[in-house]
């Protein structure tokens, strides 16, 4: 079942979840606070509404001056001070905690595939956000809170996307036999992933791989297995994390549908109140006019 994941696009996942969504319009707006259970090969983070416990399997740095999760979250909130709707903010807060844990591991090293994964997740999450300007500002504040370069994320993600559109199943897997900027990036990843502590795998990396396959129009599920082998990445971990991501997308589509229904319902109520108030005003004015004419 997991092996077939490469044949499903992100847009298809979202559309399928939207079609299957049968959410009652009377459901409370608090339903937006859906719970997420995140599992990593390298990091295992479990969260609840009341407490959070994080079990880290990568080797953590013992440096006392490393920022805490609270520091990173405060950096984000200090930079972007405007309120964010709950349906978006709930997932953003989960993501920034996970990414902080990855960011400050000894084995962490930024790479464009990881960046592509985050950009893909972020753009899927923030699709339909009321303001494009705010969406860009949130992205900038998020990455800067992790002390990284938001422009580098966007530029590298775009380079990989453009490159992937010119590739096919064979050229994706055979990167080691060719020279080029992107091919050299993959070679570096494969070399680091082949060592014990040289590479810290994450779900965002898995999403980046899937996005490359999607852009190259690769539908053969065996190609993901071959690409993982060439990169020295555990295929089972990638399959598992892509399944978790698909489930998150489905929940997100449902939550956004709830938000849309809530906003429309509130607009309707507001319109009805304004209409009733206008009618009362007109009735009062007519009554005053009739009284004055006596």
Features:
single chain, three-stranded antiparallel β-sheet, elongated, 294 residues, mainly alpha
> Mean pLDDT, rounded to whole units?
78
Query: How many strand units?
Result: 3
- Rg over CA atoms, rounded to whole Å, is 24 Å
The strand line-up of the biggest sheet is 1-2-3
* Cα end-to-end separation: 83 Å
Note the total helix count. 11
Largest pleated sheet: 3 strands, antiparallel
* Global morphology: elongated
- Uncertain segments: 1-61
Q: What order do the helices and strands follow? A: HEEEHHHHHHHHHH
Q: In percent, how much strand structure appears in the residues? A: under 5%
What structural class do helix, strand and pairing data support? mainly alpha
Portion of residues within helices: 55-70%
Summarize the structure in words.
With 294 residues, the chain is mainly alpha-helical. Helix content is 62%, strand content 4%. The protein has eleven helices and three strands. It has a three-stranded antiparallel β-sheet with strand order 1-2-3, with helices on one face. Helix 1 packs across helix 11, helix 4 crosses helix 6 and helix 9 crosses helix 11. The longest helix has 58 residues. The N and C termini lie far apart (83 Å).
Give a quick rundown of the structure.
This protein is mainly alpha-helical and 294 residues long.
């Amino acid at each position: 079942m997991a092996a077939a994941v490469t044949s499903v696009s992100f847009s298809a996942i979202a559309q399928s979840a939207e079609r299957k969504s049968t959410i009652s319009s009377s459901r409370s707006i608090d339903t937006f606070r859906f719970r997420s259970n995140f599992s990593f090969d390298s990091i295992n983070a479990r969260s609840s509404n009341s407490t959070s416990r994080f079990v880290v399997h990568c080797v953590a740095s013992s440096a006392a001056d490393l920022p805490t999760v609270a520091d990173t979250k405060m950096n984000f909130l200090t930079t972007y001070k405007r309120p964010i709707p709950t349906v978006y903010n709930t997932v953003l807060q989960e993501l920034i905690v996970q990414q902080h844990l990855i960011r400050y591991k000894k084995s962490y090293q930024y790479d464009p595939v990881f960046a592509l994964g985050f950009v893909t997740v972020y753009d899927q999450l923030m699709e339909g956000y009321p303001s494009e300007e705010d969406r860009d500002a949130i992205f900038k504040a998020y990455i800067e809170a992790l002390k990284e370069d938001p422009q580098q994320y966007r530029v590298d993600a775009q380079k990989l996307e453009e490159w992937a559109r010119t590739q096919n199943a064979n050229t994706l897997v055979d990167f080691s036999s060719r020279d080029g900027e992107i091919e050299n990036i993959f070679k570096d990843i494969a070399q680091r992933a082949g060592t014990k502590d040289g590479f810290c795998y994450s779900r965002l990396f898995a999403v980046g791989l899937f996005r490359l396959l999607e852009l190259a129009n690769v539908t053969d599920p065996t190609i993901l297995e071959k690409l993982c082998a060439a990169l020295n990445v555990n295929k089972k971990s990638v399959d598992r994390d892509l399944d978790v991501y698909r489930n998150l997308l489905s929940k997100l589509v449902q939550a956004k549908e709830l938000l849309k229904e809530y906003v429309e319902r509130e607009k309707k109520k507001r319109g009805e109140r304004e209409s009733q108030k206008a009618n009362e005003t007109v009735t009062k004015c007519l009554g005053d006019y009739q009284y004055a004419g006596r």
